[in-house]
Predict the structure.
Amino acid sequence: MSGPFDFTLALGDDALIAAQRLAEWTTRAPEMEEDIALANIALDQLGAARLLLSYAGELEGAGRDEDALAYLRDDREFRNCLLVELPNGDFAVTMAKLLVLSAYQLPLYTALAGCADERLAAIGAKTRKESAYHLDHAALWVRRLGDGTEESHRRMQAGIDQVWPYAQELFAAQPQAPVDPASLRADFDATVSAVLAEATLTVPDSAWAPAGGRDGLHTEHLSYLLAEMQVLHRAHPGARW
Amino acid sequence: MYGNDFSGEDAPGGLLGEVEAAEAALRAAAERDRGAPGQDVDLAAYFAEVIDADQKIEPRDWMPEAYRRTLIRQIAQHAHSEIIGMQPEGNWISRAPSLKRKAILLAKVQDEAGHGLYLYAAAETLGISRDELVELLLEGRQKYSSIFNYPTLTWADVGAIGWLVDGAAIVNQVPLCRCSYGPYARAMIRVCKEESFHQRQGYEILHMLAHGTPAQKAMAQDALDRWWYPSLAMFGPPDGDSTHSAQSMAWKIKRFSNDELRQRFVDMCVGQAEVLGLTIPDPDLRWNDERQAYDFTQPDYAELMRVISGDGPCNRLRMEHRRRAHTEGAWVREAAAAYAAKQASKEKVAA
């Protein structure tokens, strides 16, 4: 997968599934301010997903709009990375996921803003600012939890350990893509290792590198997420909302 | 959103116009500011004078203890209602039928969290902390609007909540924009503007459904059937049975009686339901030429009392959900406090 359609679809799916997971926190966050912050980040991801999926539909030229792509594909047709579909876990796992995702999306969108495709460049220019905020927010919490109490430190390290292997998939080389993710790895490593060091956490050492999301081979979790997300839309074929 | 129960297409000149008029009046009252009373002034007389002159009592001013307690109770219950009220609508975020609707609903529920925070801050000006108020909610010693103890069973319920529940809340809250307590009046002005936006979105959801497929239209009618009477009950018991009303009216915390506001709401909804092509589930609803208002069937107040006292369909669910979020978040809040303390002591050492 490296054509503009596949590339755009994959980024749109990343954002959509991340939004769906983050929105699960609504009414459940550890404090009210955080409920608002997580909803904000979910809204940003959803906004990016809508732009990317709409554009992917145009690139495909088969008449599929954002909703057709979001609601009428099965899990084998989704192209998101595995990271975003993982369950939220506790707040530490969610922050570990957000740290990895935003430390990947920030350099990705920044590079996109300078790419030759004007539409992708415009989307990148808008979303990179949001990603910078997501990264700030995640990094702040990772530091607080890592260097907070004994329990929060234990949970934050466990969260990082759990999420870390899924970072590998994000940087698989795609030399033909508008931005080759492999070129973002150094930036990502520098960002994340600085945050983890400040947070008194250790960078996990794991050889396991689960992958397959970009080829439609997902974890068992995605199908459940889609079942919930798509149930109403699919129950009323052709209806407008 | 908030009702009076325990304690669309609105014309721009209508309720929103009243919000703007209240805002202008508030600014005018601020310009007439008489400053703090001098040493030898009778504080109770000064308080009565400010109320009489339709000016605002501010946190720095002396106020009767009962006034303070009434306001704390009312503002806190309002804040709790915003926070608990996130749940019934939050229930549909994951299943919203289009990405646009998902974004709108997520933003709406987020607004309610914002209203909750804003109102807790208004209550804090009366000398009580947010943590204390949250504790009172979790222990069941303070209430929230009983409307949120009804379940959201279909997507159309999200529309019905926007149209009817937010609509009732606006009718109830617009007069609060002129409340005698400054911080509450200012909070209400801001909240009303956003609620009016929410109401339009809810109405739009129902409008799409009512003009959609037969299944969608049936879903919309079913939602109206279930939400109509609980929405009427949001204005609280009939005037004769309302315990807090008379004193609150005298203090200009409250400006209209429960029954007046309920009537106003019904009169507003009838035309809106006609535009939707939906039927309000009241066979006795009809225009009364003499009263220049609609006659309608009262909600079941015995049911309202049951729901208030804890036996509504979702009371237990809503409280359990809130308590669980609070309990499960404890370690995060403790970590944030510990981290902040470490940072502060590091800064001290550095200085």
